[in-house]
Amino acid sequence: KAGVTQTPRYLIKTRGQQVTLSCSPISGHRSVSWYQQTPGQGLQFLFEYFSETQRNKGNFPGRFSGRQFSNSRSEMNVSTLELGDSALYLCASSFGNSGNEKLFFGSGTQLSVL
Amino acid sequence: GESVGLHLPTLSVQEGDNSIINCAYSNSASDYFIWYKQESGKGPQFIIDIRSNMDKRQGQRVTVLLNKTVKHLSLQIAATQPGDSAVYFCAENRGGGSYIPTFGRGTSLIVHP
């Protein structure tokens, strides 16, 4: 069974640009969550999608957005990039049917904003 | 405020020793706890979980202990190996239908051969 796949693995952008990250969950998983990981802040929750709907949202500005497709694949977009957006962006999937489920993480997309 | 935190940011042990990584949580309504391991260049991987109706759960070389009285969670790794070197995160689900776990800041475990 294939794991969670995130593309691209690395990205370098400049301030003001926008970026789109992609996540393919484990087959059968309907919940996809996105996290931002930085050395100083640890794992910060961005948002969660379930059955194409945003079900939960973290405390990030509107420049961060996402969506989920009918096949459960998800994308997140960051517009007007800032230096502080440099981070590892992790995607995690689960069945999403209860709160007591473990998450399966991808290897992440390392975003560097210059 | 409510938080999941770790007592030690870095733990150094010798190969073969037992390791104990600690985690404090503040929400007594949390009903599900998970430990994840993150190796360099990878995403976090599930290690072991425990529900609030249990005090202890054992896996292969790992044991999680839950003390609800003092809101404390620990991960014990027996016979620590160099391959156990990683950052370990505890996470709590706060019940009430919440699907989103809250992660602690992580503890870096360094195993010296």
Q: What does this entry look like structurally?
A:
The complex is a heterodimer of chains A (114) and B (113). By secondary structure, chain A is an all-beta fold. Chain A has no helices and eleven strands. Chain A has strands spanning 5-7, 10-13, 19-24, 31-38, 42-50, 53-57, 64-68, 74-78, 87-94, 104-105, 109-113. In chain A, strands 2, 4, 5, 6, 9, 10 and 11 form a seven-stranded mixed beta sheet that branches. A four-stranded antiparallel beta sheet of chain A has the order 1-3-8-7, with no helix packed on it. The mean pLDDT of chain B is 89. Chain B has no helices and eleven strands. In chain B, strands 2, 4, 5, 9, 10 and 11 form a six-stranded mixed beta sheet that branches. Chain B has a five-stranded antiparallel beta sheet with strand order 1-3-8-7-6, with no helix packed on it. In chain B, 0% of the residues lie in helices and 52% in strands. Chain B is globular. By secondary structure, chain B is mainly β.
Query: Which class of secondary structure composition applies to the elements of chain B?
Result: mainly beta
For the report, how would you describe the main beta sheet of chain B? 6 strands, mixed
The helical percent of chain A reads under 10%
How much helical structure, as a percent, in the residues of chain B? Answer: under 10%
- Rg of chain A over CA atoms, rounded to whole Å, is 13 Å
Multimeric organization: heterodimer
**Rounded mean pLDDT score of chain B:** 89
Order of helices and strands of chain A: EEEEEEEEEEE
Uncertain stretches of 5 or more adjacent residues of chain B = none
Assign an overall shape of chain A: globular
Whole-number average pLDDT of chain A? 95
- Number of H/I helices of chain A: 0
Low-confidence stretches of chain A: none
Main pleated-sheet profile of chain A:
7 strands, mixed
* Portion in beta strands of chain B: over 45%
Rg of chain B = 13 Å
